[in-house]
Amino acid sequence: MSNSSLVTVFILTGLPHSPVLDAPVFGIFLVVYVLTVLGNLLILLVIRVDSHLHTPMYYFLTNLSFIDMWFSTVTVPKMLMTLVSPSGRAISFHSCVAQLYFFHFLGSTECFLYTVMSYDRYLAITYPLRYTSMMSGSTCALLATGTWLSGSLHSAVQTTLTFHLPYCGPNQIQHYLCDAPPILKLACADTSAIRDYQAPGNLVMGLWLFSTLCQEAMLKLRDKVRE
């Protein structure tokens, strides 16, 4: 990824609202954010200390809580800063790159994880007697790793396509976070090819990697059932 642009700082316009609502909006989002973080930390702690919860379902729930906690942290603190003062709207080029990457990384990983959790519940309902042996620790780890790798790959492609373009003009992002669509509007180059490629290309790439890992897991499960 190269940055040959003149833009070194972006300005986030934030949530569209009346200035008189800054304090109430700030308070609401702060409370929701704190409750989200504390709630997920509580889930992680309870699963950690209770040995009865050391099962595949709660293993995936641990991953989900961890993702959800950091997914909120990637966006909400900066959004709160934009409500506090005008200077809080500024975000450096590299910080914007990092926010976009982790936003898509955690978001897509969470989507893949929901698929894995659905698959886990399917096995628990369909094969209740063999479920424990089918969803072994190594199988759970493989499926969880697949979600993280798929999310990382998706985000890397999305971030690279977005920031390899030159940004040499306006720097106001019409959003409360660094996301690809509003950023591409600021590029000093034709973005039509990237827009046409991003959604289907990233989807196919992510699904290809994820389906490959799922097929490997299914082969292992089939071998265990035969044993």
Automatic annotation (TrEMBL):
Keyword terms, alphabetized = Cell membrane, G-protein coupled receptor, Membrane, Olfaction, Receptor, Sensory transduction, Transducer, Transmembrane, Transmembrane helix
Endpoints of the signal sequence: none
Upper lineage is: Eukaryota, Metazoa, Chordata, Craniata, Vertebrata
Concerning InterPro entries, the annotation shows: GPCR_Rhodpsn, GPCR_Rhodpsn_7TM, Olfact_rcpt
Q: What is its main location?
A: membrane
Protein name per UniProt: G-protein coupled receptors family 1 profile domain-containing protein
PANTHER family, alphabetically? OLFACTORY RECEPTOR
Subcellular localization, as worded in the UniProt entry? Cell membrane
Q: Which residues cross the membrane?
A: 26-47, 59-80, 100-119
Please state every residue range assigned to the domain named G-protein coupled receptors family 1 profile: 39-227
Provide any one GO MF term from the record: G protein-coupled receptor activity
User: Which membrane topology term applies here?
Assistant: Multi-pass membrane protein
What is one GO cellular-component annotation here?
plasma membrane
